[in-house]
Amino acid sequence: GPDNIITKRQEYFFPATAHFYKDPPQIVGGSMQYLFDHNDKKYVDFFAGVSVMNCGHSNPEILEDTIKQLNNIQHTTTVYLTQPMVELAQKLAEVLPGDIKRTFFCVTGSEANEGAMALARLYTKKNGFIALTGGLHGRTHLTLSVTGIPMWRLDDHLVKENIFFIERPYSADLSYEEAMEKSLQQLDAVLKTHGNNICAMLVEPIQGNGGIIMYPRDYLKKVKTLLEAHDVLLIVDEVQTGYGRTGKMFCIEHYDVVPDIIVTAKALGNGIPISTFSTTDEIAKAYSRPSASTFGGNPVAAQTALSVLHYIEKNNLVEKSNELGKYLKQKLEQISSPFIHEIRGCGLMLGMQIQSQNQSVTSAEITDMILEEMKNRGFIIGKNGLNRDVVAFQPPLVISKGDIDTMTANLQEVLKQIV
Ligand code: PMP
């Protein structure tokens, strides 16, 4: 039973293991936008396993291809090429922005960001990095070193030399315009002083863990221009935003900028681990030493990813994410509550900034109350933000308007109950 798994979790996991909920549901099944626990209670999933299950849980059309591949050949490594891996690389060249063409396959988002950072060093022959406060890029040594969220950092044990943080263009105290100017000025100053030692800047096009922070439309264009003047590459981390999540195939398309290197993971395998970093012909040439990830581009994951891309296209999930995102945003904006400070984001990547009204309870505690009560009512929603006080809505892109209607109606009631 569930008591058993909670006791075992306390006994055998590291104390650092983070869970939502005082009493996490024991999920035993999933079907598209729905989840089921051990008591057969049904939930509508509005978090998609942190933006992974864009095509829905146990999607039968995708699973058919995965199972066929499992029965065929499960694993070879890149030493012996398989058809799905090569076909996937070709398909990615078609969907990725600009003249980004060559792909290196890995397994997790952290690993792909780490690879992208190695590539930037090889290409520019420089070694420093710029990153934004509030960003999250992974859990490996270097990717955690460029992660700008204090709660995730193992501060005493990270790389500090030649890592430069600039403030993200978002601040509770400044207008978007002012925050953008401040961020660009800091970037300019860092580049002027240290540009000779910096190989790349990493950014998420919308900060996920940082609290669903989208930048002003022309921010990244201005960033790119400044970087180019100092031969510094732009690495865009689309781990959480990629594959239709924000109403475009890739979130960077909202900003009209083509990055030098693009990193993807999560939704590409719809639950089967696979990640990528991709770049142009010219930059890829710099990575010519023998290098391969044992599981990267594994045929089961690659075949699943091909099926995912096919499913997204066939079912117009990018356009759906855009339309349903607008609908959900409008519904969230109609909820009246003194605790809602702001609704942010685009497509089906939306955040609700919670603001406490008195000293006796924190915004993070109110956020937890909302998550807990919504879970009891059959809705799994997420949370993020520097202070863990942003309610996050990132459902599978196959969600329906009806699900949105019932979720927002329940959310309105839950918010009314909180005093
Ligand atoms: N980048 C971003 C933007 C992420 O959201 C995450 C994970 N939440 C990562 C990188 C790390 O990915 P992984 O956990 O697969 O290593």
TrEMBL record:
Transit peptide in keyword set: yes
EC number: 2.6.1.44
Gene Ontology terms, MF aspect: alanine-glyoxylate transaminase activity; pyridoxal phosphate binding
Native species: Anaerosolibacter carboniphilus
Keyword set includes Transferase: yes
One Pfam family matching this protein: Aminotran_3
Protein name: alanine--glyoxylate transaminase
InterPro entries, per database record: Aminotrans_3 (IPR005814), Aminotrans_3_PPA_site (IPR049704), PyrdxlP-dep_Trfase (IPR015424), PyrdxlP-dep_Trfase_major (IPR015421), PyrdxlP-dep_Trfase_small (IPR015422)
Family: Belongs to the class-III pyridoxal-phosphate-dependent aminotransferase family.
EC class: transferase
Needed cofactors: pyridoxal 5'-phosphate
Known partners and oligomeric status: Homotetramer.
The entry's keywords: Aminotransferase, Pyridoxal phosphate, Transferase, Transit peptide
